[in-house]
Amino acid sequence: MDYVIRVHASPLDIPAAAWDALLAQQDAPSPFMQHAYLAALHASGSATPETGWTPQFVTLWQGEALAAASALYLKDHSYGEYVFDWAWANAYADHGLNYFPKTTCAVPFTPVPGSRLLAVDATARQTLLKAMLEVAQQHQLSSLHLLFTSSDDRAACNALGLMQRQTVQFHWHNADLQGTPFESFDTFLASLSQEKRKKIKQERRRVADAGVTFRTSVGSAISTADWDFFYQCYERTYLEHGNAPYLSRTFFEHMQRDMPENWVLFVAERDNRPIASSLVAVQGLGCAEAVAYGRYWGALERVDCLHFEACYYQPLNWCIANGVQRFEGGAQGEHKMARALMPVPTYSAHWLAHPAFADAVERFLERESAGVDNYLDHLAERSPFKRQEPQ
C-alpha cells in the first residue's frame, strides 16, 4: 500500500476528527484514547518532554485520509506505565548498557486495556507497527513497548514477532453467574457468598454510622467547585505518599470543558461538608455495552471503610442503576475480589533491540506467563460468588 508516514511532536498536530473517527472503528475503543484526552495530557503539561513523555505520535496517510495512528512516546523512565520493566532496566545497567530512552505506545498514567494501534484494517495496522519499530531503530533506542493492548493489537504484534506479556487486573460484570443482570445492589449482594455479603454490609454500615452520605454528579452537572474539591482530594492522595500528582489541575479543566460526558463524580459528605471524592470514567453510557473505569480518589478526613464505599460500592450501585455492563477497577489489587471484581488477563507487547537481552527476556516471559496462568487458576478458586450446586 502507498502510505505516507508522519511522526508528530504533539497530538495537537493531528486532526481530532480524523483521529476519533479512526478510534471508533477499533475493536476496543476507550475514552482515554480520544484525541481530547491525549491532547489534554499534552496541553496541560502532564505528559510532555519535561515530565519524561516526549510525543512521537506516528500516523499513516492515504492521500488526505488517516489510515492508522498511534500514541507513541520516547521515555527516559518507566513511571506512569503500570507494566513494570524496572528489572529489565537494572539488568541493562548491570551490563553497562542504556535501557533509557525507550519507546512506549500507551496512554500515560492510565492502566486501561484498549486499542493502541488505530487502523482501518490489518494491513494498515501492521504497517503502522513497522513504522513504530523504525522510529525506535532510527533513534537507536533499546526497546518498544505496547501496553494494555487489544486483540487486534496483539495479532499485529504476533505477526511481527514481538514478545507478549500477560498481567492481571480485576473487573466487575453486571450479571450473576447465570448471566442475569442485577436489578439492584441487593440482588448483587444476594449473588455473593454469605461471608462476602456480610463483610460488604458491615463496611457500608461503618460509613453510614459515621454520618457520611454521598451525592453523585454526572457529566456537565459536575460543577467547577466540585472539580476543585475533587482535585484537592486527588492531590492529597499523592502528597501523602510523598509524590507530586501525575495530572495537573489544568488537565481536569480540559476534561470538564472537552469530555464532560465521560465522567461521574461521587462526593462523600458529613455535617454538610465534603470530605472525600472518587472520579469514574464512562464509555458508551446509555448503550448496551457501557463500561465504567475506576480512576481517582482522595479524602480529607479519615473514616473507616470510606475508600471501599467511595471507590467500589457507590460506583457499583450507580452502574447497576444505569445499566453499565462492566466496571474496571484499575491496576492490581487482590482485595478487589472481596468486592466481586474478578481477575482478567491483560496484555502488553515488547521488542528489544539487543539480541541477547531479547532472548533472555523472552525466556523470562515464558516462565512469568506460566506463573500468571497458575495465579489466575488460584484466584478462580477464591470466587466471592455463591457456589453452584451440581446438577
Automatic annotation (TrEMBL):
The keyword Endoplasmic reticulum does not apply. It comes from the Bacteria. Gene3D superfamilies: 3.40.630.30. GO terms for molecular function: transferase activity. Keywords: Transferase. InterPro entries: Acyl_CoA_acyltransferase, FemAB-like. This is GNAT family N-acetyltransferase.
